[in-house]
Amino acid sequence: MSYGLPMPATELPPLTPETTLGEVLRYYPGAQRALFARYHIGGCSSCAFSPTETLAQVCSRNENIPVAEMIQHIHDSHSQDDQLQISPREFAELMKTEPKLQILDARTREEHEAVKIPGAQFMDQTLVQHAFSNWDKTTPIVLYDHTGSRALDAVAYYIGHGFTQARCLTGGIDAYSQQIDPTLPRYHIEIEA
Q1: CB neighbours (10 Å) of residue 87?
Q2: What is the pLDDT of residues 85-119, one digit of tens each?
Q3: pTM for the complete prediction?
Q4: pLDDT tens for residues 30-79?
Q5: Residue 179 class from Cβ within 10 Å (0-12 exposed, 13-18 middle, 19+ buried)?
Q6: What is the CATH superfamily name and number for domain 85-179?
Q7: Which of 7, 29, 136, 193 could disulfide-link to 149, CB 3.0 to 4.6 Å?
Q8: Rounded to an integer, what distance in angstroms lies between the CA atom of residue 53 and that of residue 68?
Q9: Residue 76 and residue 107: Cα distance in Å, rounded?
Q10: What sign for the dihedral angle of Cα 79, 175, 161, 38?
């Protein structure tokens, strides 16, 4: 399984107090955003966690949050994230049928210049400000990144500014290349230590 690709709820392993945060993030890519939003856990260096810490350990050192409550919150947030996504096949159909569709690339400029989905615009600050000032709030928008994990944050940002039809491409450009357009080159990002 690739990191960041959502799994159907029926295939997700159960979360227990012994589940590590690394495992949580592998199967629930939006969990870090959800934990930070509700509990201020994992969003900055002062509230960071280790991937080897268990849910019970994180709860214990954060004011004894009830583990069952945190697990329920992760599940609920995952269900909400599912509502913000569009599959590569649904996206391909939308591209054919929706003339007002805006496709936004949330990757780096270098990634965008190397390979992009046809019609995509690089999402820089200038484009964001133009969209917020000039686009109709019902404009259908699909944002994508490399594997679909980071673009959910951008979609939440657009929805928070009233764009009701903003969605994230499930699996990002990588899934789109595999499932819809194999002419788009796939790539891997090397992270320097």
Answers
A1: 17
A2: 999 999 999 999 999 999 999 999 999 999 999 99
A3: 0.71
A4: 888 889 888 989 877 778 899 999 999 999 999 999 999 999 999 998 88
A5: middle
A6: Rhodanese-like domain (3.40.250.10)
A7: 29
A8: 16
A9: 27
A10: positive
